[in-house]
Amino acid sequence: MIRDFIDRSTNKIDIEIKFKRGAIEGWTEDDAIGFFKLRTKKTERIVVIDWSGNAIRQYETAEELVKDFVDWRFGYYVLRYQKLYDDTSYELRYQQGIKECFDKDLPSMLTDIKDKEAVVNKIEKLTLKFKLDEKQIDRIVNFPTYRWSKESYQQCKDKIKEWRAAKKEYNMLLKNHDEIWKIFRDEVVSLRNEKFVK
Asked: Among its keywords, does the record have Transport (predicted)?
């Protein structure tokens, strides 16, 4: 295809190439650039330590890296709301146990109970349906006397209402991950707008 060439390059590249007659008829500039391989695709591998810190991962594009990171990070958002749900359920049961003690008039019984073990047994019996653990029972046993008041009872009822609403919200989020994605996006956008000072 190439018949001859003349290289007149000095301070700049100047090469004249002669083709066989009719060989390049109808060529465009892009055809010539492609023929001489003057255009090359530059690739770059992105090598990072994976999110667990135990392995090395390679990515072809930055977009792949970001997508993988977002998918990994989203898993922690789901875990966050699962933990909030579990913690809320735990606190709700505790508050319901306190309310049950109020409703069953535990404060008036305390003067007739002989020792701490008997108080523990009484509270365990009263709060059986809430499946309180030892720590929660102990918290109720160590309730100061002044906390067995009408004011505390009302506070307990208010907290139960708050914990139920929070539990319902977390349960809704755990059932619908699209809502968690919205929260995730909003938090990323707010981080982008933050001014970090060194």
From this structure: no
The class (CATH top level) of 62-193 is: mainly alpha
Q: What is the pTM of this model?
A: 0.69
Q: How confident is the model at residue 196 (pLDDT cuts 50, 70, 90)?
A: low
Burial of 139 (0-12, 13-18, 19+ CB in 10 A): middle
Any idea where the domains of the chain sit in the sequence?
2-35, 62-193
